[in-house]
Amino acid sequence: MAWAAPATAGPKGWADASDIGRDLLVGAALGVPAVQGDWRGDLDAGASVLVAGGTTFALKELIHESRPDRSDDKSFPSGHTSVSFAAAASLEKRYGWEAGLPALLVASFVGVARVRADKHYVHDVLAGAVIGSASGFLLTSRHDDRVRLTPWAGFGGGGIDVAMRF
After folding, report:
1. Could you tell me the pTM of the whole model?
2. The domain containing residue 119 runs over which residues?
3. Any domain includes 4
4. What are the beta bridge partners of residue 163?
5. In this structure, is residue 116 part of a structural domain?
6. N or C terminus of the chain with fewer C-beta within 10 Å?
């Protein structure tokens, strides 16, 4: 797989792998609803990722924990992990375990990769997972495919088509 890092990879390889995993998850959380015309799913996923990222940023600014590699003092909590778990939790809540389980496995990989990259301690990653999961589960609504709203616009006007399945 493109995002897998071999067991012998150095910190840079693990950091790259965590970047790819995070980007794939955020892309999936926003892309799956977009492809399905599920604007509410896109809004929920976007809000989940933004709230997780914002919460993480605020905590980093307040806590100032030094990273294991001593590159800066923004170790706690893990931003990669919080955003990854927000995206994964949003996918799980919106579309069920079929989408959620693989996403949660990738999010877990991102957390492990951040520790292996020497960018975070285990407690940083666990805190990020809690923040992201809470954001994703609390800000995402379940997908109800019995009702579909489709906005449309043309030269003569616009509106919203409503389709219901009984």
Report:
1. 0.82
2. 11-164
3. no
4. 148
5. yes
6. C
